[in-house]
Amino acid sequence: MQFEFFPSRTLTIYLARLFVTRIFAVLFMLVLVLQMLDLLGESGDILAYPGNGQGQLLYYVSMRLPQLVARFLPYSVLLATIITLATLNQNSEVISMKAAGLSAHQVLAPLVAAALAISGLSFVFNERVVTRATAALNAWEAVDYGPIPKTSTARNNLYLAEGRDILLAGTLSGEGNAMVMTQVTYYRRDGNGMIVEQLRAPRATYANPGWRLENPVEFNAQTITQQRMGSAVVAKGITPARIAISGVDADGEGLFTLTKSIDAMALAGRRTTDLQAAWWHKLSGPLSAALMPLLGAIAAFGLARSGQLLIRAVIGMALGFAYFVFDNAALAMGNFGGYPPFVAAWAPFLLFLLIGETVLIRTEE
């Protein structure tokens, strides 16, 4: 048994089942509490829109829930690792396994295999559910929880600048010449970059060229007057092709869709460093769950009667949370161009993989 990576079939199933049940139990408790707190904070804004009620609150929960699950699944794996291993240590089961000839890596093998399976499920869940929920929720928030955008291609919070024209839109739906903007604000600047005119409109359609604002309200900064207009065509330099490569939301796009967006922006000569870092993080992020058993492994070993079990559990938790801090910091550096995209996404994972292995080998192997 010493030369096999996994222990016996019975022991492998026992450890994996113990670990997985604790992952979902911890995840359920975390998401339940966080969803309640988040809903308490957002319910006032949701119900403030006329006509919104319980149905809209439930819709918000259905869109927000996948985000919370995806974000806190790695934390749940970390906490479940510490709970599982500390319990096994407390009950002297780890000592029994080591007395039977198992190495520390063999004790952890079922947990790592289960965590890898969780990582695979997390990746699929992110691609198929979380990205769509994020895009829909962002579009809904952009219209202050008003009428829910019906199109799956809706985008939100667009900022477009071309020459002296600045165009902002709360949401954009449709493709090509059929694009429609809502909550539109247009600014016209003079040669010195000062804003001399502002138009606000509830809706705008593409006029080829330019964008036709419906029932806009004009404010002239030079005469300090305001008037309502029937329609106005503005920003003739901003085209649907220009919009297609603007405001890409990496969290709201799947891996293959994001690849196309990056290629389109690169072809147009736009900066794509932040999007490339997000692309790589879509792979390294879910895989972080497989790292948690290794970082929390220190809680499994050492005599429980020595009084150091709590200290070991705290150290394991500290290693896990340190990984998340470094991961977020590296991703932020990648977004600003401080790190190459690949390094920003994978350096924390590889660094803490080496740290976890070093701690395990030096203390137990």
UniProtKB/TrEMBL annotation:
Cellular component, GO annotation: ATP-binding cassette (ABC) transporter complex
Pfam family, one: LptF_LptG
Name the UniProt record assigns to this protein: Lipopolysaccharide export system permease protein
Spans through the membrane: 12-37, 68-86, 107-125, 283-302, 309-326, 338-361
Keyword list, A-Z: Cell membrane, Membrane, Transmembrane, Transmembrane helix
InterPro entries referenced in this protein's UniProt entry, alphabetically: LptG, LptG/LptF_permease
Compartments it resides in: Cell membrane
Membrane topology, from the record: Multi-pass membrane protein
Organism: Novosphingobium fluoreni
GO BP, sorted A to Z: lipopolysaccharide transport; transmembrane transport
